[in-house]
Specification:
Layout: H1 8-23, H2 32-41, E1 45-46, H3 57-65, H4 70-78, E2 81-82, H5 93-103, E3 108-117, E4 123-132, E5 139-141, E6 147-148, H6 151-158, E7 167-171, E8 183-187, H7 195-226
Parallel strand pairs: 1-4
Antiparallel strand pairs: 2-3, 3-4, 3-7, 4-5, 5-6, 7-8
Length: about 230
């Protein structure tokens, strides 16, 4: 009997390779220093309340240098600022309502800028609101009024404000308002967001295809035994 070679196994290997590569797709990478240096040099940072827009990179860097050290500028850029009613903070609309719902009348609210590197490579400062109230862990509120608990990890797990292939520069303790602390550059979403679904799909497809291949091989053997 001549055994027929099945093409199922190479197909399974190819499928698994595709799914595993998708599962482990590299998150956008940049160090904290690299991302902040991009901010210092860029003349087009959307919503840049600290450095403004226009001019040349050299002019911008000289302006920043006259105002303090890089550490001072980074702290000022990312520090939480108490909300001031004169500055429309907390805002009206969904964000303001979410802040009031969480913090109540006795709570305190701060605004914090985080630097976003978009998928296009452009930079933008977005504002998140930090709400503190007695007896509860602090929360973040985004511009759409969605509330996040669990600090930076909670925001990265659940936000749909930003895309998964974008990065943010932010304090690691994003809901802390005391100042100082570690600053990190991280992908907007955690790397495991889609892994369970992809791994599960890989396993199911692998079992089905291998099962079909084994069944086909058994059928060929039975045929060979009946028709030598």
């Amino acid at each position: 009997m001549v055994r027929a070679r099945s093409g199922a196994f190479p197909a399974v290997v190819a499928l698994v390779a595709v799914l595993v590569s998708a599962c482990g797709a590299a998150a956008p990478q940049a160090s904290r220093e690299e991302l902040f240096q991009e901010y210092l040099r860029s003349t087009h940072v959307k919503n840049d309340w600290l450095g403004g827009e226009g001019g040349t990179s050299a002019d911008r860097i000289a302006n920043f240098a006259s105002r303090g050290t890089p550490t001072d500028l980074l702290s000022r850029l990312l520090s939480a600022r108490p909300c001031d009613a004169d500055a429309d903070c907390p805002p009206s609309g969904a964000a303001g309502q979410a802040v009031r719902d969480f913090a109540g009348s006795a709570g305190s609210v701060y605004e914090r800028s985080v630097l976003v590197k978009r998928r296009s490579g452009s930079l933008e400062l977005i504002t998140l609101y930090v709400a503190h109230t007695s007896g509860r862990a602090p929360a973040l509120v985004d511009s759409r009024g969605r509330t996040y608990t669990g600090g930076l990890d909670g925001f990265r797990h659940h936000n749909d404000l930003l895309s998964s292939d974008e990065m943010i520069l932010t304090p690691a303790a994003i809901t802390s308002v005391s100042g100082g602390g570690k600053v990190v550059a991280v992908s907007v979403h955690t790397a495991t967001d889609r892994q369970p679904w992809l791994i599960g799909t890989t396993v199911v497809v692998l079992v089905l295809v291998l099962g079909a291949a084994i069944g086909a091989r058994a059928a060929r053997r039975r045929t060979a035994e009946v028709c030598p």
